[in-house]
Description:
Helix content is 67%, strand content 0%. It has six helices and no strands.
Amino acid sequence: MNEQTAFVRSMVARFPKLSELFEEHIKSNFGEVLPHVFFGGVTRYVLSLLLAENGRSLPPRRELRDVLGYLEEAYSGDNEKIRELISVSFLENLPRPGDTGAQIREMIGANLRKQLNVIG
């Protein structure tokens, strides 16, 4: 199992609400994990938590904070493959300023924000 696939699996284990997304992903990809494709779904999931947060619901707010913290921690490590996955398939898919959900850009950690500023 490659590093990116292992990271996807660890994320699903850490955040059980991603299990359904992961199962659909596996089914749609003939049993194979495609980390960059899966992370497109992770981005949509995180944005759904943000929108639920606007309703002031505590559990989505906590999960949103936890997922963003997990991604910040992983990105801060020295694994270039994981950094690439998070940068290319999460950060690049975040809404642009002025778009719905763009406030997520202010919620990510310092290392992710630094990379997001590089990306634009």
